[in-house]
Amino acid sequence: MKRYAAVFVISMVFLAQMGARAEISVKIKDISHIDGLKKNQVYGYGLVVGLQGTGDSKTTLTEASLKNLLNNLGVQVELLKPRNCAAVMITADLPVKAHLGDRVDVTVSSIGDAKSVAGGILVQSALKGADDVIYAVAQGTLAMPERQPGGQRPVKTVAFITGGAIIEREIIPEIIRMKTPAAAGGQTEQMLSLVMKEWNYGLANNIIKAVENKYPDSKPALGDDGKIQITLVKDVPLAEFIAEIENLEVEPVQPAVVVINEKDGTLVTGGAVTVSEAMVSKSGLVIEIEKSAKKGSSFVMNDITSVADLVEALNAAGASTSDIIAIFKALKESGALHAELIVR
């Protein structure tokens, strides 16, 4: 309980410091991305060989796959018990711009009843995208993570290969589009779009103003699809134009959110969280009234306007971690807490 109380005190101090600081600014590239620039997921099926009797034992999928592989190599086999093999799924994330010959990391996961894939070798396997096109080929020796977060033992049926896939098909994203002229006879222009990671009209307005101030001819505007459309400026190289826009700083607009982790007693807020006047009464919570011998289990919060003030008052009143969590839940239900409450 002492450790939890310390967590809440630290949270309270941090929140108070946040309220005292001036508004911060962030770069546009940290809160948005250019439409079309994204990673691409690929996946495939394969066989891991070379296991020391820890492979699949009861699945016919592995046996059929191994027979098919050997048949393609010209080897005819009727009966197989592939205890040294395992059927696996292979997954990988291709970079934003994938070029022929680039290498990417792959994750290999058993889909049969193998006990372990440690020390195995993945046989060459094709990796496809959602469009059923092969973009990479994976092969190599499997490596196992030493430890998982929290000191837990690693899962023996999941492994990885660093640089285990070679890209066989390039992916060049299309980020420049043609802008249809508003009036007949107008000149067609090239444009790109920004997509905000967290949608917010206020933030969109801040981004538009920042871009317009830097490049007035770019005519930034909010499209019906929620993307910020920016016209390319003549005589400015594309790389310079994008880099300058991405590094522009704007004032973030954060939604009012309170996140509580009941397991470790952590409380974090985002945005301008406010609290209306309210009365708190909690069984077992004793409040001492100054210059009086009276004591009670309730107090009125009429001078509290922020979460920092609230946490400070509750800590001063001797509220426990469970008390504070229960009070925040009740304040949200009563409408006094003006923020989204997330309890985990």
Q: What are the SSEs and their pairings?
A:
Blueprint (H helix, E strand, L loop, with lengths): L1 H19 L5 E2 H4 E3 L5 E10 L10 H13 L13 E9 L8 E8 L10 E8 L5 E8 L16 E10 L9 E3 L9 E8 L4 H14 L6 E2 L5 E4 L6 H9 L2 E2 L6 E5 L4 E5 L3 E2 L2 E4 L5 E2 L6 E2 L1 E4 L5 H10 L4 H14 L2 E2 L1 E4 L1
Parallel strand pairs: 14-22
Antiparallel strand pairs: 1-13, 2-10, 3-4, 3-6, 4-5, 5-8, 6-7, 7-8, 9-10, 10-12, 11-12, 14-15, 16-21, 17-20, 18-19
Helix pairs in contact: 1-6
Share of helix, binned: 10-25%
Task: Report the β-strand fraction as a percent range.
Answer: 25-35%
Provide the low-confidence segments as ranges: 1-22, 287-292
Question: In sequence order, what are the helices and strands, one letter per element?
Answer: HEHEEHEEEEEEEHEEHEEEEEEEEHHEE
Mean of all residue-level pLDDT scores? 80
Q: Which descriptors apply to this entry?
A:
344 residues, six-stranded antiparallel β-barrel, 7 helices, 24% helix, disordered N terminus
Could you characterize what this model shows?
The chain has helices at 2-20, 28-31, 60-72, 201-214, 238-246, 307-316, 321-334; strands spanning 26-27, 32-34, 40-49, 86-94, 103-110, 121-128, 134-141, 158-167, 177-179, 189-196, 221-222, 228-231, 249-250, 257-261, 266-270, 274-275, 278-281, 287-288, 295-296, 298-301, 337-338, 340-343. It has 344 residues and is an alpha+beta fold. The protein folds into 3 domains: 2-23 and 254-343, no CATH class; 26-36 and 174-250, no CATH class; 40-167, no CATH class.
